[in-house]
Amino acid sequence: MENFQYYTPTKVVFGKGTEDQTGQLVAEQGCRKVLVHYGSGSVVRSGLLERIYRSLDKADIPYVSLGGVVPNPRLSLVYEGIELCRKENVDFILAVGGGSVIDSAKAIGYGAANDGDVWDFYEKKRTAQGCLPIGVVLTIAAAGSEMSDSSVITNENGWLKRGYSSNYARARFAVMNPELTMTLPKYQTASGCVDIMMHTMERYFNRCDNMEMTDGISEHLLRTVMKNAEILMSEPDDYNARAEVMWAGSLSHNGLTGCGTDGGDWASHQLEHELGGMFDVAHGAGLAAVWGSWARYVMDAAPKRFAKFAVNVMGVAPESDDTMTAVKGIEAMEEFYRTLDMPVSIRDMGIELSEEQMRELAEKCSHFGKRTIGCIRKLDTEDMYQIYRAARG
């Protein structure tokens, strides 16, 4: 087991009706003025935003609002939020929504707390020295951003999707009422479940040994999400299934399932980010579309790891050699994706990739030849192209 640090400062308030505590939680932060940041009209139509406003009013917390966050959140709205925060002297940001809203809030927080262009952080040109404090009212179980240190933003100039991680942006609190996720469309629920699983799988596929505790946590989390995802496909109002998935989403991306590892692979995420930037696909769906092709491309570099995943997570009976077991595990995961009506190829998402687009995706993913990705097997631009080609379908 590798040395590690585990830091999870977020206060979690979990359960039915917990959104009514939002004003009190914000007041505990000692702030003077809040930016309420949200996405589409769903939080308005459901009445959630009005309940949040009433809770803030009850706590005598002044606020301004900025909506309009979309999946794969845009840098242009981040700039708008930064300007609004500075104009209104905002000193706390409340994200009401899912991962896209939270990621956008974190980016606004970075921009408002630091001089210069916030995009520099996402391009790794410099390091943030702070972030406005963030609070979350979670409405989608998926990204785990409510307890993670990460944020992913899409720059419309070139449609580049980039991530930045810093402990400065970890949420001070996360209000998590599973009931708020019950109105999600089936596709969005399924995509969220894949996203949760992939955050754990990215860490699980690593080059380390002797991680019995961490591996056990990861394997059980994955089996739990799979079980409850299938329940939600037919029973979307099942509170217990919603609760299990929501809590798994936070645990999958708060660092717990990476303790003692080398950090994990993350190549599937990097490959999907470029698909999201180019085609605006749902993140979980994009991950499902590329994962099998990535797994087949790299599994020979870590057959025992893939075989362990096949047996302990997917319930595959061991074959005579690890490679055969690994292949059956990959096939079993793809079959699970199909039960959720998730894609297992890019074509399954209605996208017909051209040769030029595959090359462009690989160039962007490699930062135009400046980086490799992955740890199971280091992938260069040509490797990335080959995986996109295999995933094309």
Automatic annotation (TrEMBL):
Gene3D superfamilies the UniProt entry points to: 3.40.50.1970, Dehydroquinate synthase-like - alpha domain
The UniProt record lists the keyword Oxidoreductase: yes
Domain Alcohol dehydrogenase iron-type/glycerol dehydrogenase GldA positions: 9-178
Domain of life: Bacteria
Keywords: Oxidoreductase
PANTHER family, per database record: ALCOHOL DEHYDROGENASE YQHD (PTHR43633:SF1)
Protein name: Iron-containing alcohol dehydrogenase
Organism phylogeny: Bacteria, Bacillati, Bacillota, Clostridia, Lachnospirales
